[in-house]
């Protein structure tokens, strides 16, 4: 069964590679004494936006996890729900590499021999090489399945872990790890995203220990810890992978996502004031926690406009206009926001002037010169 899944996934990965601009490369490792094969998938915007940095995702079991992750990432990025990432998959299913890579001492439960070398290879060789070769943002994630998922937990044993996010699919953990990981999640000071999953059709001995880890880890209350666990119904040890990947990614990047209807109704529309500040804070959190400085989405501007109008907090259009001028200079957005403020307050002469100033600026989003002219003409009649 494993052999069939492996062959099928390799064929899928080969077919998928050309569509995803995935390249096969190798890294010469002093730690391992050999060269290791890796697959690198650069995001669609990598060549277009030459100043932008992208989060890094390291995939263990790269042969079969690569197509599953890149597919989910491409879909999420299309809707701006998940940031584009640089994905690096490590090949581990040749010549017994997977077993050797995950070697650990049965008494201490820590990596030993080739397992310790592989751990050092990832942290001290592979990641620095990728950072030097590509535009990598501070946010780094690692993912694995069963043995490699358990192995990825070792990076949490460091005082300052190399990785910020962990996606662990049915982890097969060395002895004692289900007790040690919650303790580490308590002590680590930096922000950590931690996701793990099992299923009712998972291997029983793995599922029991995974659920035990969850019982303790879910009680950890530490600022900066984003913890999530899934126990899927009707999934197996292998099929849970396709359930877990989107759940993990959408959970991790909930703050990154555009303002949704739920966020608007539950968090924004209920505010008495501070709608513009909410928008500023949202993007500040993205920058501070993920290391990604983003231009505020036009749809998020529209959401704040709607909240201001709904709650008749028209003076906040002034702040929104200032923010628009910083985010979209030389476009009509800033003057349009001022026009809305004057129009809602009944000051039609000033609203007309604002819309006509907007008419002279660059169009942006769904704001057009025709729209500005028509709004000004309608107000002249009033």
Structure described in brief:
The protein is an alpha/beta fold and 382 residues long.
Key words describing this protein structure:
382 residues; alpha/beta; Rossmann fold; Serine Threonine Protein Phosphatase 5, Tetratricopeptide repeat; 2 domains; 15 helices
Q: Describe it for me?
A:
The protein is of the alpha/beta class and 382 residues long. It has two domains: 2-252, Rossmann fold (3-Layer(aba) Sandwich), CATH 3.40.50; 261-381, Serine Threonine Protein Phosphatase 5, Tetratricopeptide repeat. The protein contains 15 helices and eight strands. The chain has helices at residues 2-19, 62-78, 97-101, 114-133, 147-152, 177-187, 204-217, 240-252, 261-268, 275-290, 298-310, 316-327, 333-344, 348-359, 369-381, and strands spanning 22-28, 35-41, 54-59, 86-90, 136-145, 165-169, 192-201, 225-236. Strand 6, helix 6 and strand 7 (192-201) form a beta-alpha-beta unit.
